[in-house]
Amino acid sequence: MASEQGFIVIGAQNIFFSITNLRHLEEVERGQYPVPIGEDIFATKEIQPETVDTAVDALQAIFQLFRDYGVHHYDAVGSYSFFEAANAQFVVDQLYSRTGLMVAPQTLAQESFYRTQAVFARFPHFKEIIKDGTVLIDISSGSVELTAFRNGKFGFSRNLSIGPLRVFEVMSDVQATVPNYVDVLRDYIDSRLLDFMRLLPRDVHYTNVILMGSALSLFERLIPVGEATVETDREGFDLIYNEVTHASDQYLSDEYDLPMSQTSQVLPTVLLLYRLIKNLNSDKVWISNLNLLDGLEVDRAADKGFMHAGFDPDEEIVVSAQNLAERYRVDPKHRDATVQFSLQLFDRLKKLHGMGKRERLLLQIAATVNDVGSYIDTHHHFIHSEYIIQASELMGLTSTEQKMVATIARYHSSDQPQTDLSDLAELNSARRLTIAKLAALLRVADSLDASRQQKIESLRVSVKPDEVLLTATANDDVELERWTLARKGRFFAAVFGLPIELKGRTQA
């Protein structure tokens, strides 16, 4: 059936799969195959050949199941942890040559975005819960992603590289040499949480914590069959913590029905969550079995028009960009003016540039974050903006889109790409042209507030046969803006083939 699609997620310890009816968002089949990719990565930095063999066997079994169900369309993604391997690209090529599977990479921000979609669509009463401060904690083998909501809206997202398997691999030598391993492990985790806690908004009480992720298999016995979530309280979680910190591996294996190979991660998992919940001072703890696979299913169902996403995904991306701008103390009035002019120019010059909704969003994001580099150096801020944006988490953008935003920010100022765009050779020609168009529009928008005084109150855009004319109504003289546009508008003329000019009149 056309509405049924397959999904594959290659994680740090398992390859997950599902066959889902997107029209009704119902799973026909779901399962996982254990593949110890994370153990290789965190121990040796590379995925070993025998692990690749195990992955190939798992994928071939999954493809056979897809064929049995008549499923011809599928999405396959590799988690961020998978692509941390030094030889990840070689492994991707091996998987393709041996199974025909092309694995798409996921950034941490993309994974967080998909998980947010999963909880909005499938977590009971989620919109009611997030009216209070709520932190979604997704814990995988290699990392922990924290996504905060307040007043019913997305607040921010942070990733911490302290997943339980990673912690265990790092601390395994310590466990064998110290008598107070729990204390040392707690201190190690607290040291990694310090910067995260310092950056939390001080005026928000995070009443609720929602725990989810592939590393929470030890809690699955707490979730009744047929349900996706269970609610507990701080006292209930304290009991689990006290039990685990005094238990042997054999006891944990028997009590939580875990293979012995996973018991070593129980203590780091519980200790990590306990310290997070304690630091957040949360009252309620929700445990959910939703994961990245659920988010992919929801995203594809919404993309095909079978359901509403339950939230505005663009809003989450924009808020993420605003958070980044605030972290690097970008002038909010200039930022907002630049965003406003950018979108105005985009909308009124649509016939000239021919771009669509997604490109408009990329321009909005670039206009929001283009000045973050001023935090380091105001004179060459565009250089620093590029690498800050590249190294940051922008929710919902692909790695290519994030690279595009960073490059647009790089060229929004006096610097500009080669005329033939050859210095952007790592991107295909269509994306290079999009970057050039959006950078040209952003240059113009930035020029319109060159004085940083928001003089222009309204703007009229006219496309004439021989030029683009901007007519501004201002509350003060706009000579600096006109002079700046005369310089920075040359790139606009090179890209679109028309010069651009600003005329202004001052209100009486």
TrEMBL record:
Span of domain Ppx/GppA phosphatase N-terminal: 26-299
Ppx/GppA phosphatase C-terminal domain location: 320-468
Superkingdom as given in the UniProt entry: Bacteria
Cited Gene3D superfamilies: 3.30.420.40, Exopolyphosphatase. Domain 2, Hypothetical protein af1432
Pfam family, one: Ppx-GppA_III
Protein family per UniProt: Belongs to the GppA/Ppx family.
Protein name in UniProt: Exopolyphosphatase
